[in-house]
User: Which sequence fits this backbone?
């Protein structure tokens, strides 16, 4: 019984801490933005610092073509660019969250392989700790991961900052598992223990 409890605690701790830890941005030495993909496929750009971060653009790449570049506002599916917010008249939300510099952002040929927004004339000012919703940008949930880079997720996330022309920063990708996945992981561990004891 003691072994069972120990394994159950280890499995629970591994699941709870799968996304913990400090990830370093290889280009700058300090992570600024991460892409968060939740179990319901909702995606966010998250400022993980304690200060405002200015950025000129971002790009998400999927080698397995799991991105959904077509926005359906009514169904809340597909990638939601800043241009989509502005087309819906959400100027105040964009201005209050990302600053007026975000108004000149534009989409860069979105496909199932890549979605990107670029801003050549100004910068977005992403507040400390703020998560900016970019819609349900994936059509299929990628594997759970938390890393820089994140080849296991099948996704790559890059962002650019003012004064770094020609340089992109490799951002962290965090894919949060649905609760059922964690439960199945725990049950699988319990099943192995029961089988081993017989």
Assistant:
């Amino acid at each position: 019984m003691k072994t069972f409890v120990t394994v159950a605690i280890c499995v629970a701790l591994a699941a709870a801490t799968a996304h913990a830890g400090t990830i370093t941005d290889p280009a700058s030495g300090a992570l600024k933005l991460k892409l968060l993909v939740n179990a319901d496929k909702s995606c966010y750009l998250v400022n993980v610092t304690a200060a405002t971060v200015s950025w000129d653009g971002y790009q998400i790449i999927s080698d397995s073509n799991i991105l959904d570049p077509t926005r359906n506002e009514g169904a809340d599916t597909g990638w939601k660019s800043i241009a989509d917010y502005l087309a819906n008249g959400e100027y105040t939300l964009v201005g209050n969250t990302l600053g007026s510099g975000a108004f000149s952002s534009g989409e860069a040929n979105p496909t199932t392989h890549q979605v990107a927004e670029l801003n050549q004339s100004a910068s977005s000012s992403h507040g400390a700790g703020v998560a900016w919703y970019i819609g349900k940008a994936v059509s299929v949930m990628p594997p759970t991961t938390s890393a820089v880079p994140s080849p296991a997720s099948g996704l790559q996330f890059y962002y650019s900052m003012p004064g770094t022309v020609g340089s992109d920063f490799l951002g962290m990708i965090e894919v949060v598992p649905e609760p059922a996945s964690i439960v199945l992981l725990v049950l699988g561990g319990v099943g192995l223990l029961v089988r081993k004891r017989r």
Remarks:
- The two ends are 13 Å apart (CA to CA).
- Helices lie at 2-16, 82-87, 91-98, 179-197.
